[in-house]
Amino acid sequence: MAVTRYRRFLKLCEEWPVEESKRGRDLGTFLRQRVAQAFREGENTQIPDPVTCDEMFESLARIHTNHYKTKYPRLKDTSFTGVTVEECKMVLATDSLKQLEEAKKGKWTKLREKFSAKSPEEDSK
């Protein structure tokens, strides 16, 4: 039975999209890592709690198929702030977050990083 669970999870991982704009923070990438971790031995992995495993799969499958989005349709494609889906994706992109972090740095930190021969991580050690 572990073989079918493993194959179902693999199929779900193949179908789950990867968002390139969220490098290192993408749900699809995280899901793939967790499945690889949970099924270290592949089809030979023994599942200690098959019921919980099946529940997790069903939950992920519902998220993937937009079950709740179709069950509870939204009247508008904006949030309470009025921000659209595209604007949210743009703000949450990894590049945008890096720019935001760069903007938060003070002038002294920027100058020190610019003229320092070593990286800031080494400086804090």
Automatic annotation (TrEMBL):
<dbReference type="GO" id="GO:0050796">
    <property type="term" value="P:regulation of insulin secretion"/>
</dbReference>
<keyword id="KW-0496">Mitochondrion</keyword>
<dbReference type="GO" id="GO:0005743">
    <property type="term" value="C:mitochondrial inner membrane"/>
</dbReference>
<dbReference type="Pfam" id="PF20180">
    <property type="entry name" value="UQCC2_CBP6"/>
</dbReference>
<protein>
    <recommendedName>
        <fullName>Mitochondrial nucleoid factor 1</fullName>
    </recommendedName>
</protein>
<dbReference type="GO" id="GO:0016604">
    <property type="term" value="C:nuclear body"/>
</dbReference>
<dbReference type="GO" id="GO:2001014">
    <property type="term" value="P:regulation of skeletal muscle cell differentiation"/>
</dbReference>
<dbReference type="InterPro" id="IPR037698">
    <property type="entry name" value="UQCC2"/>
</dbReference>
<keyword id="KW-0809">Transit peptide</keyword>
<dbReference type="GO" id="GO:0002082">
    <property type="term" value="P:regulation of oxidative phosphorylation"/>
</dbReference>
<dbReference type="GO" id="GO:0005758">
    <property type="term" value="C:mitochondrial intermembrane space"/>
</dbReference>
<dbReference type="GO" id="GO:0005759">
    <property type="term" value="C:mitochondrial matrix"/>
</dbReference>
<keyword id="KW-1135">Mitochondrion nucleoid</keyword>
<dbReference type="GO" id="GO:0070131">
    <property type="term" value="P:positive regulation of mitochondrial translation"/>
</dbReference>
<dbReference type="GO" id="GO:0034551">
    <property type="term" value="P:mitochondrial respiratory chain complex III assembly"/>
</dbReference>
<dbReference type="GO" id="GO:0042645">
    <property type="term" value="C:mitochondrial nucleoid"/>
</dbReference>
